[in-house]
Request: fold
Amino acid sequence: MQDTIELRYTSLINRVKKACINCGRNPEEVTVVAVSKTKPVEMIEAVRKLGHRHFGENKVQELMPKMDHFSDDTEIIWHMVGGLQTNKIKYLVEEVDWIDSVPKLKALKEINKRASKVKREIKVLIQVNISDEDQKFGCEPEDLPELLKASDNMKYVRVMGLMGIASFVDDPEIVRPQFRLLRELLKQEQEKGYETHDLRHLSMGMTGDLEVAIEEGSTMIRVGTALFGERDYG
Ligand SMILES: *Cc1c(COP(=O)(O)O)cnc(C)c1O
Reply:
């Protein structure tokens, strides 16, 4: 398994480098979050052995035991990338480093309240609905300014940028404007000069669309399949 993972890892890193070079960007600007959902801890260990540090999961009940498994590993950085349930936030903030999928103010307030009890600052990304599909999760683009304004100066929440999931289609020219929208929203908000928000990241791009996302300015891609193989579920 180590060999398979190593091959996939090398080819993923090469894909990222190539995409960056093709559009004149520095590959070091792009962080890869390895999304290990549904995959066993042995596979995470195999990627970890290659020196990789950022890992993501989309369900609290799966993330918690995996974080516990790696509790002695002080270098590993955990991201929650999936739908947030308010009642689970109190468990999450005890150990997670990043929450990449925060859709609204209510969730930010809960994160701040719970994180203050354990005195941990949580890095978060605001998930924006960029694909214009009703069932997609996230803040509507027009509601973003108000959300950021209302959440500036929270003591235990550091808003690091925006996250978006594009439509699941093969045509890059359909997803490109969606990624571009996220980049433009970030730029608009950066110019406002918030007090505590540190708006620098664009988490966009997955196995199927990471090249377009990188061309459009992604600084964080979330990759599962290219690294861990196809999933049976989840
Ligand atoms: C599963 C998942 C990914 C990774 O998807 P792949 O297409 O397997 O690379 C990225 N982001 C989120 C939010 C996910 O749930």
Notes: The longest strand covers residues 157-163. Residues 35, 37, 58, 81-82, 206-208, 222-226 surround pyridoxal-5'-phosphate (CB under 6 Å).
